[in-house]
Amino acid sequence: MGSGKRFYLGIDLGTSSVKAVLIDEAGLVCASASAPLQVSHPHPRWSEQHPSAWWDATDAAVTEVLAQGEPRRVAAIGLSGQMHGATLLDEAHDVLRPAILWNDGRSDVECAELEQLPILREVTGNLAMPGFTAPKLAWVRRHEPDVFSRVAKVLLPKDYLRLRLSGECITDASDAAGTLWLDVRRRAWSEAMLAATGLDRSHMPQVLEGNQPAGRLRKALAERWGMDTVPVAAGGGDNAAGAVGVGIVRPGQAMLSLGTSGVYFAVSDGFHALPERAVHSFCHALPDTWHLMSVMLNAASCLDFTAQLTGQRDVTSLLDEAQARGWREDGPLFLPYLTGERTPHNDAHARGSFTQLGPQTTRADLANATLEGVGLGLLDGLLAVESAGVRSDEITVIGGGSRSAYWTQMLADILGKSLVLRSGGEVGPALGAARLARLAVEPDASMDEVCPLPAVTAVRHPDAARHAYFRQTRHPLFLGSYEQLKPLYPHAAAGGDSRPS
What we know:
The protein has 501 residues and is α+β, with helices and mostly antiparallel strands.
């Protein structure tokens, strides 16, 4: 790192790891580090992590990344993180129970109850889904009343990190939009929605815009890391921050994120909503900006599943084997609903499956089916967003899955869109968090300067004939398979508590 420069630290709390990056004044990533996380599944459809593990991983990643740079030249910190997680704190800000994560499916009964509220869709712009935060609190209120009675603050995952960093209880509008407590059009907490789960504004952090300062680094931490007591930006939910990181900040721009989950993200011209198709209507991480989003719960994680299922040593080897074999029109079909699905089905009980297997089916065929099945699920989401009136013909791709040229070309063929890969796209939300940190201390900086579209590294153009086959033959088969198998999916017992008796 050159002397005299200022740097910005971005921290992204993911599901499988915490990532930290340093960027310079030119927006270039100068250093990066990550620390792994584990997810606990103590009962069917449960998904939890302990916030102490988040902090330990953050401390490790930040310590490592700062060792590669000049800590005293870091001017601000930005935060990003997995959305929707319910982090429950008592009056002393001690954690009351493990956090319930975005891919937890236990609260479907509570969702059905929230759906009875006449104001729900009008205020939030969204369906009640088990992934959102409000149903989680309704579940805790019903099944863990002793815990609920002690709740003093509910924080989203990245905002728990902010509390540890700065001592402040603050969130941003993009992350808050995924709780079902936010009036998304007004970008403010809804008293009525809070009351529906037995809470009020006192339980909530303050809502700021993602590019605003939201506390300062604690003195003790600054001394330990060799930093100054720099501002901590409000930051953004992982998808919004990922979009900021690749310059997807203006209406008409769109992004596809291939991580643990799969997300199609389209910036809208104002507030739009289509909850009946399970489209997410959220605030962006920048002021007066909104976006629509489709979410599938299992995307790149399906590749890990198939690699483990078939005894392949890792995902890279599985992809190599799939490419060597090639995708076949008569190959097996995969439904990627390993832990349920959001867009467009809103079905916490859906499960994954391979069908159309034969005696000649190989591991490579199962790998190709997995790649195709995730792509067809993403097509479902894209079509739902377009039905809300938000369309883009060019889509920027980010996330770990974007590293596979074979898969991204298959996705272009399935979606019928040009997929654009850009430098820094693999960095993900941590880059956006760092950009938001810079905006927090340089409010007069232009958006073109801080959030440009990174240089194009590759473009995957769709093959018209292959797209027609996917759209006209494979996609109807994919949808029909879900409908035929749906009656076989397990459903929770009355009361919604999926713990074994």
